[in-house]
């Protein structure tokens, strides 16, 4: 079995089965040299064996990686074109998170995924079944980063991310908070903390404590250090929003 097959099987769990597994299997059989469909089926059988033995666990780093690639392809194609800047953003993110070799394997998969029609709802239902709320929030944050890579989030891209968020059971408050991290508006800092400008100083402090807890990188520790590091960006934006509001209001 080649290096790609080993990469695919090493970190993935639930994404080897269900609708996502069908997408990956199609890509492996159609677009990737050096790995056979039989190799992939071996990995699926190992996964199914673990399921029957009652060893199903939480999402792994590999599951997050594959889910991200599939949802990224949906967002990138949502405005009717594939922008090189968005592709570069995905590659840069993966190199930063996983290193060059693992990112190269991921992009082999991505280049096949982006050619295939995806049932967003089916994919999201599978993700929702296995991923924690904090992990799903991180997915949505990354998708906004992709959409903004070409300088702006288009209406079609925002609509697609909103649809993905709803399928992932991300409520409107959480969605608006993450969205505000990518829009420079007068009330963005308040939206990030899920409050309005009418909030009292005590309510601001309480909101910050709640959001800092919700978005703390430790929430993703089951995915590995690379994902904790990636979550720092979101956490820092929450901190910056709070500091901005404190400065505007003169809160100590």
UniProtKB/TrEMBL annotation:
SUPFAM superfamilies: Chaperone J-domain. Pfam families: DnaJ, TerB. CDD domains: DnaJ, terB_like_DjlA. Residues 188-250 form the J domain. InterPro entries: DjlA_DnaK_co-chaperone, DjlA_N, DnaJ_domain, J_dom_sf, TerB-like. PROSITE patterns: DNAJ_2. The chain crosses the membrane at residues 7-32. This is DnaJ like chaperone protein. It comes from Tenacibaculum lutimaris.
